[in-house]
Amino acid sequence: MSAHADTHAHDDHGHHHKETFITKYIFSQDHKMIAKQYLITGTIMGIIGVMMSLMFRMQIAWPEQPNVLFEALLGKWAPDGVMDADIYLALVTIHGTIMVFFVLTAGLSGTFSNLLIPLQIGARDMASGFLNMVSYWLFFLSSVIMVLSLFVEAGPAAAGWTIYPPLSALPMAQPGSGMGMTLWLVSMAIFIASSLLGSLNYIVTVINLRTKGMSMTRLPLTIWAFFVTAIIGVVSFPVLLSAALLLIMDRSFGTSFFLSDIFIQGEVLHYQGGSPVLFEHLFWFLGHPEVYIVLLPALGITSEIIATNSRKPIFGYRAMVASILAIAFLSTIVWGHHMFVSGMNPFLGSVFTFTTLLIAIPSAVKAFNYITTLWKGNLQMNPAMLFSIGLVSTFITGGLTGIILGDSALDINVHDTYFVVAHFHLVMGISALYGMFAGIYHWFPKMFGRMMNKKLGYLHFWITAICAYGVFFPMHFIGMAGLPRRYYTNSNFPLFDDLANVNVVITIFALVGGAFQLVFLYNFFVSIFYGKKAEQNPWKSNTLEWTTPVEHIHGNWPGAIPHVHRWAYDYSKPGHELDFVPQNVPMKEGEEELQH
Amino acid sequence: MTALLTILIVFFVAVAIWQMVKIFDLASVGADNAQIATDKDNKLNGYLMMAFLVFIYAITIVCIYKWGDLPLLSNSASEHGSQIDTLMIISLVIIFIVQTVTQFLLHYFAFKYKGEKGKKALFYADNNTLEAIWTIIPVITLAGLIIYGLFTWSSIMNVNEDEDPLVIELYAQQFNWKARYAGQDNVLGKANVRLIDIDRANILGVDESDPNAQDDIITTELHLPVGRPVLFKMRSQDVLHSAYMPHFRAQMNCVPGMITQFGFTPSVTTAEMRQNPDIIEKVANINKIRVENKAEIEAKGQDLRYEFDYLLLCNKICGKSHYNMQMKIIVETQEEYDAWIKEQKTFKNSLIN
Predict the structure, then answer these.
(1) Which H or E run includes A348?
(2) What is d(CA A187, CA B265) in angstroms, rounded to the nearest whole number?
(3) Fold of A24-547
(4) Are B218 and B204 contacting, i.e. CB atoms less than 8 angstroms apart?
(5) CA distance A517 to A460
(6) Structural domain spans, chain A
(7) In whole angstroms, what is the distance from residue A446 CA to residue A440 CA?
(8) Chain B: nearest CA to A562, how far in angstroms?
(9) What is the ipTM of this complex?
(10) In this structure, what are the phi and psi dihedrals at residue A227, rounded to the nearest 5 degrees?
């Protein structure tokens, strides 16, 4: 326990050192404030990322048509309002980068790990408040650099979010691979440093700062998910950092880690002996675990929200923990399924097919356990609950097609088509986004002391749910028809003319879905200031965060930290009058704790 | 089109804002409104869950009906293609069954057990038998799929060199494809980008001193004799590309600095495929669409009429014109192929001295 947390342990009655505006709102070391900072930054990045996707969706649906929006937003990249092919690829690239890393990694994990880990395990703060602050500000810096890269002369990085060299290494291959890519790499290097500091802090906090009675088997599943996510991050993010550094060496210092035998624009380059396939290995060694870094926190949040709102214990707690651990382990040995047709030895392809399809087993266990948790529950349809059910739905739909993509023989024909785009958007994009929305609706009272409007929440959920399926379900079919992703326009292939109308339908769903996110933003920002004041435990939940006062105080609990006497899921337990028994309520005489 | 688009966007934004304001106003009136779901909310959302289930089923049926049997999904033009298609169909059937059942359970439970005041949920935390069942069923299903998949994969990827496959190099550069036939000896001459000599028209960097290279033939169209195994050797001179031949269920990346390979046996000639009823229907449909968009297509300088051809597409992001990196593939009888190849210049004769 750090000295910082210690002082507060002795300082039970809330005599806090004076905080200035700067230490309270800007360079805050309080985990609750840092969580809010992550959330607001992530939301702003999310708005940018989604706007980009709407722009390139319009280009796909109505290729090379003048558009006032493009003219206004893209400036020189859209002469006469017609989107340029280079900026199309840049939009695709930056959309992917922002959504995967800045929104669904930092925005999701950063917000909820910071908010919930100390509150749910019964700690005054993170193990190191200072590192936590540094982690946020590094994330902020990397976000600023990523946004700045949009404004460089030759355009932002445009080699796809996977930045495979040589395309990303050679400015002659693509204008975005000049200054734009340099800034991308710098931004990501800082981002990774931020992520590592955050993750180490989460791990140390969960291991060391649990309150009395909070054994690992009594941890809420949210904490299990955040804990394991942090471990995956610590194991895999450094590999991406090394790949980025080696790429910087190749780009700027003439080394040949990833490049060999290149003839471009009339001249032979000096590179010899490197291999782009090596970069693919390094990238996907992070890239695949990254999927679970994004998804596991969302699943953890969902576990908590589904149990609370079903007024039932989560079904199969031990199996849920085991499947989180199994997914985490397997996630580090499946990266090769992104590379079946990369030129890698076919035997390796067989190995990766085997490990990849194994992941379906713990995933299936999780899905069935969620469904069984609903069974014979008393479901409270709060917006957070709707998004959690929605998550299970998209997780199933998107996860099932993984059986096709993970099968090397089938991947040959759908690799890099829209089938892949549909698959990962549903299973990790939409699912994780739903997890994030669910978390915001559920913990908003904890974060801001006020309630979000439920009717706007319902409107937001139902329109989003319909649009998400409307966008990504038909996309599987154009993928199976052989339509490659990342094409600026399909009009040079008459072969695909009969798919043009599908693309229009998809884009309309995307535009409507995108527009209705304004409902959420409005609800979110207005509720911060004008929402109805929250009670202490609005959802009648068992976890410790709801035993803290509504008004935030430094150190979380005004008195002693509560002790824990039971697991987090004693909902509707026979022998208790209320349908929930918070974790800090001692066992009644003769009451048995479940052998979970 | 722009006008329509703008109107559309403005309209939806307006609707969104109107809805928000209205609902927010309504909601913030009564002081008893706690923003926590009431029985009424539970009931409404429970019914909406069922409606949503119907929506998922409907969109599935519409998609399968309208786009479920695109000619690219069936009618493979290579010998291994039907293996992939069979595996694909088995996988899709399993997926659709699981999807239908689990989505039903999820949404039906959400509807059936919608909350009511005073009701108490069943305290039901664990059941090892159930857990075992839904661990073992996926294990068995996946074991089957994995074994089937791996057999298919290895039979596709392990090229049988004894069958004397026709060796062809696919050469990728920003933003076009070239094919290099191995010629009479069926052995490709050595090549390296450092040997490229544009002035002498040695565009692929073929080694002039290699005897095997003399009879190589470089073309911009890919002709393949039907029924003969082909072994493609892929090369790229600048960035990653991917040689994607969807009709043949074939794909392999082209990687600068290394040679990758993929082999298959074309089984249907271009002429035969054009007579296939599915393709005739597809082509007629496309031509109908093209007539509707006549002005745009002619403005781009494309032929209005579409005729079916096999294609090689680039399927790995490679730069600005990635979307237009293609090469026509023609599968023909051995005689037609022999006649065509005879007319092509050999490497030795194509050099400018």
Answers:
(1) helix A346-358
(2) 47
(3) Cytochrome C Oxidase; Chain A (1.20.210)
(4) yes
(5) 7
(6) 24-547
(7) 10
(8) 25
(9) 0.92
(10) -60, -50
